[in-house]
Amino acid sequence: MATVAQWIQGARPRTWTNAIAPVIAGTGAAAALGAAVWWKALLALVVAVALIIGVNYANDYSDGIRGTDDERAGPLRLVGSRLATPRSVRAAAVASLAVGALAGVALALVSNPWLIAVGAVCLAGAWFYTGGSKPYGYSGFGEIAVFVFFGLVAVLGTQYTQALRVDVVGLAAALVMGLLSSAVLVANNLRDIPTDTTSGKITLAVRLGDVRTRRFYVALLVLAAAITVALAWVTPWALLGLLAAALAVRAARPVASGRTGAALIPVLRDTGLTMLVWAIAVALALALG
To answer: Per the UniProt record, which residue ranges are transmembrane (predicted)?
Structure first.
């Protein structure tokens, strides 16, 4: 029987920055238009966090019943470690996704009802990442999905629900969040190349191989920095996002130095922190500017 602490660990708190940072960035972009609405931002945050917890439990369930998590170098998995039954983890996933859906419907109804359709696509993307007979996460499309859902949709959706429009500042923030969020997944899949290869989980990292995956990870960070600099042409305040550069360098060091296995786990934390610091710095700059 899993403890409360193990259930929390199974929800993968280190990945929650992938949900929190885009909402902060999107709210900052709305503030730049003079249209930030705090309670809508909180609703968007509930949606994002509930969805990522649901994704994590769904991933735990689907990978667990397939045997993908039987041997792994990463953090705790509830089903793979036999600490919780597949049924209970699936129920946790469904409950989390339901909370996100309810908050999303509420946010759509006070903004624009057509957003409900976007939410439905997000829910499908969350479940079929590793669920179903042909999960797209097993075919190398996980990074694209993360870029779209935790970058473009999360940031622009947050900005739109508050300002009822999006602009180039929101788009730039969405691109940066998407790139950094994808980098988190790349680091995770880089660590799991040996076990994923054995289990038949063909992630993008498995397709690229170890060396090219490391180069891809660094390229994502560099591109995010380049977009930050480019955004300065629209608003010089965006350069405050470069305050996250030190964290990005710390995150990239184990990847660039060729570390493997558990030594790559801190990369997920540091990449997530890079996202969070960038989002807070840029959002505050946009709001104050």
So the answer is: 37-58, 91-108, 114-132, 144-162, 168-187, 216-247, 267-288
Q: Mind listing the pLDDT tens digit for each residue in 107-142?
A: 999 999 999 999 999 999 988 988 887 889 888 899
Q: Above 90 in pLDDT, residue 273?
A: yes
The conformation of residue 148, written as its DSSP 8-state character, comes to I
Cβ atoms of residues 220 and 183 within 8 Å: yes
**Cβ distance 119 to 171 under 8 Å?**
no
Question: pLDDT at residue 267 above 70?
Answer: yes
Length of the chain (residues): 289
Q: Identify the burial level of 5 via C-beta atoms within 10 angstroms of its C-beta, where 0-12 means exposed, 13-18 middle and 19 or more buried.
A: exposed
> CB of 206 within 8 A of CB of 140?
yes
User: What dihedral angle (degrees, nearest 10) is formed by the CA atoms of 255, 260, 262, 267?
Assistant: 10
